[in-house]
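Severity: low
Component: inverse-folding endpoint
Summary: output formatting inconsistent between runs
Steps to reproduce: submit the following structure tokens with default settings.
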């Protein structure tokens, strides 16, 4: 699993963004990404606004870094991970554990060249990857491309996202990202609208997982939600087994009623042990590659 990623860590293979530069594709993608800022359609809200002058639904104009540090809490194969948290998000999850940065515009703009130097120092200290997250990284693709333009070390790039990206965004990421670390939340559109205020979730996110599966390596995270085993967990895991069977899957049991969840019936509790066991057993029956 994640063979290309391991080869990069061992110096046997180059990170995707370096290969893109060698092929002469990176500069073209960078120009396309910067142009996208003038009429943003990077996520499926497709606001079409000039983000140099105003903020979209994601509450993001110019990239704002809420935090960046060496992270040891990710999947074991990924740590230590140099994780860059953006503020702003195109989801409105009522239980968001990072609501203080995802639902507010916080942090600072860091010049791309400065951020590239931060990444270099983290690499020297043993960082195994650069982990772009949030909030949500999708609105910040132009900034990420600017940073990578100033970088030339062999370090894998991780896309840590809710995957509510537009096809345009997925095209920009193709050949740049080494690992898609995805958050596959819901098994239907009704739950996605109720809990995260997004439309057409299932069609968009399954499409993007298929695109990512053909583009790079992938780890899918699925957070079990209280009372959502049959409507969300089972359909998500079944879809994975049928459409992207080689990926690694992290079944997460740490749901906590953060943010506004305490006020929502059914979402104001931790999951039951029986719910976790039921989902885990189903994943085993499907033959999924389960990791911590």
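Observed output (run 2 of 3):
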């Amino acid at each position: 699993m994640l063979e290309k990623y391991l080869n990069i860590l061992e110096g046997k293979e180059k990170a995707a963004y370096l290969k893109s530069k060698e092929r002469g594709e990176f500069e073209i993608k960078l120009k396309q990404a910067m142009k996208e800022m003038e009429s943003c359609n990077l996520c499926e809200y497709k606001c079409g606004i000039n983000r140099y002058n105003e903020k979209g639904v994601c509450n993001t104009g110019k990239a704002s870094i809420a935090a960046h540090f060496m992270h040891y809490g990710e999947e074991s194969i990924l740590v230590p991970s140099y994780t860059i948290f953006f503020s702003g998000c195109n989801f409105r999850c009522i239980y968001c554990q990072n609501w203080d940065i995802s639902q507010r515009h916080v942090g600072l703009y860091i010049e791309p060249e400065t951020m590239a130097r931060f990444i270099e120092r983290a690499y020297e200290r043993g960082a195994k990857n650069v982990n772009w997250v949030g909030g949500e990284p999708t609105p910040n693709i132009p900034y990420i491309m600017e940073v990578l333009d100033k970088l030339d070390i062999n370090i894998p790039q991780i896309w840590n996202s809710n995957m509510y990206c537009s096809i345009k965004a997925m095209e920009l990421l193709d050949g740049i990202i080494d690992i898609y670390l995805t958050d596959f939340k819901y098994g239907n559109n009704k739950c996605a609208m109720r809990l995260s205020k997004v439309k057409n979730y299932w069609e968009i996110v399954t499409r993007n997982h298929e695109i990512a599966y053909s583009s790079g390596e992938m780890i899918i995270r699925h957070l079990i939600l209280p009372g959502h085993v049959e409507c969300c967990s089972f359909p998500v895991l079944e879809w994975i087994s049928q459409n992207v069977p080689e990926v690694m899957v992290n079944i997460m049991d740490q749901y906590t009623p953060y943010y506004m969840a305490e006020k929502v019936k059914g979402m104001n509790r931790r999951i039951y042990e029986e719910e976790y066991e039921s989902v885990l057993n189903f994943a085993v029956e499907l033959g999924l590659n389960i990791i911590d």
